Amino acid sequence: MSKKNIRKGIVLLLTVVLLSGCWDNRDINHRVMPVVLGVSKEMEKYKVYLQIPEPQNGTIITRVVIGYGETINEAVEKISTNIEQDVDLLHVKVIVLERRLAEEGVEDLISGIMRSRDISAKALVAICDDNIGDFFASMEKDTPPSGTNLFGFFEKNAGWDPEIALTRVWQIYRSIHSYTRDVAVPLLRRGETTLVEYKGAGVIKNGRMVDEISPDETLLYNAFNGESTQGKVEVTNVASVLILDDSMSHKSTFSHDRPSLVTNMNFVVMVLETKGKPSEKAIKEDFEKIVTNRFEQMVTKLQKSEADIWGLGQLFRKEIPRQNLKDWRSKYYPDLNASFIIKVEIQNTGNLKLTNE
Question: What are the DSSP calls for 23-63, one per residue?
Answer without folding.
Answer: TT---GGGEE--SEEEEEEETTEEEEEEEEEEEETTEEEEE
